[in-house]
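dude i think i finally got it to work??
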Amino acid sequence: MDLGPHAAFIIAAYVMAAVVVLGLIAWVIADYDAQQRVLADLEQRGVTRRSQKSEAA
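look at this
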């Protein structure tokens, strides 16, 4: 496979794209974990979702 005279640029572009995609995946996973912790804290305090039916009703 010959990429020609621009092989370094092509490889660098693919590497950078992979780094960005992996970074975004890591960011989403970290944010999901943070949101789960916040939700658990709110539920522990007794805050419920408005869409959740109350047990008294």
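The chain has one helix and no strands.
im so relieved honestly
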